[in-house]
Amino acid sequence: xxxxxxxxxxxxxxxxxxxxxxxxxxxxxxxxxxxxxxxxxxxxxxxxxxxxxxxxxxxxxxxxxxxxxxxxxxxxxxxxxxxxxxxxxxxxxxxxxxxxxxxxxxxxxxxxxxxxxxxxxxxxxxxxxxxxxxxxxxxxxxxxxxxxxxxxxxxxxxxxxxxxxxxxxxxxxxxxxxxxxxxxxxxxxxxxxxxxxxxxxxxxxxxxxxxxxxxxxxxxxxxxxxxxxxxxxxxxxxxxxxxxxxxxxxxxxxxxxxxxxxxxxxxxxxxxxxxxxxxxxxxxxxxxxxxxxxxxxxxxxxxxxxxxxxxxxxxxxxxxxxxxxxxxxxxxxxxxxxxxxxxxxxxxxxxxxxxxxxxxxxxxxxxxxxxxxxxxxxxxxxxxxxxxxxxxxxxxxxxxxxxxxxxxxxxxxxxxxxxxxxxxxxxxxxxxxxxxxxxxxxxxxxxx
Length: 448
Description:
Layout: H1 2-13, E1 21-25, H2 30-41, E2 45-52, H3 58-74, E3 78-82, H4 85-92, H5 96-115, E4 119-121, H6 126-139, E5 152-153, E6 156-157, H7 165-175, H8 191-206, H9 210-239, E7 252-255, H10 256-260, H11 265-273, H12 280-288, E8 297-299, E9 303-308, E10 311-316, E11 325-327, E12 333-334, E13 340-346, E14 359-363, E15 371-374, E16 381-382, E17 391-392, H13 393-399, H14 404-409, E18 412-415, E19 418-422, E20 426-427, E21 439-445
Parallel strand pairs: 1-2, 1-4, 2-3, 4-6
Antiparallel strand pairs: 5-6, 7-10, 8-9, 9-10, 11-15, 12-13, 13-21, 14-21, 15-18, 16-17, 18-19, 19-20
């Protein structure tokens, strides 16, 4: 019987320990009812979990009442929540389907933690996996999209992937179990429904065993994916010196010359950049620009990629930084955002100007307090020490061959509207110590 097949599948993939506590996602449909009954018969400690999205009026309430009664009949703890996917979808600008998915899995995980369960079991079966592959083909996909639904993803497990819909319905009939039908699943208004109701029957008219054929292909590609992932990890390490089965910190640097030597350079670049939120169109643009001018920037929702001569640099998009730090007259130190130590000394009498880039010696008589410490802003300029003409900070950074990340990390010490020191670089020529200077304001920065 099906429950023995499912038990063998669970054990072969180590989905659940014997007698483990498991949250069962229970919609009331045929698949979830079969899953609940099977896991309960196999002596797992089951918890019923139902989400009412209030998307189908009285039918939604009917499903909630049915699942509650089912758990009562089985003597299983039951939890229900009311979530409003339509409102969430409008607020987050996503589809209702995506909203419902995000909300229910978030609640399932919270319930799992609260109840001390080891997993959340959902009722996807083999036919769902076939539909997913066809959907991904339509959207355009890489190898992962052709490997179907995974039996385990974090704490989510899918014990019914070893069987198809027909086996589920046969099991319910044998066990004399009732279930509810979501009428929206019978309408071809959604892509998945169109696949199930229109596309698969058409394919079966051409090849009756098309579901089995696609399932076999999924199994083959799952093995291929293992080799693919291994090869990609090795290739990532070749083009990223800091890559060791992942990255520990940012920024991350990708060698363009090393990338050019790879046989599947574009696929490799996609596998790497997709981890930082870059989509296929982004990767296409980056790949085309790989030999272009340095300085170009590409953005995902969370990360930024900068071209810097022979490398790409990936970093998080920085938060808007308008913070200004003040150094008052007579103040001897500043501890954030960096450590500065300050002192006033008399000029002359053997005083020597330091040549260290971490020390600035300024004419104290020309400074207006409080001094301000901030990051560069658009249009900032100064007169570099030893020069007489103004230079934009951006041009100075370009001359110094700084990349975009290094430019943003600069700190400027300002007196009024004037930049007196590009910290760790050069002072402004107007504030230098000369023969007329009576008092020197010496600042030492910790650049470590």
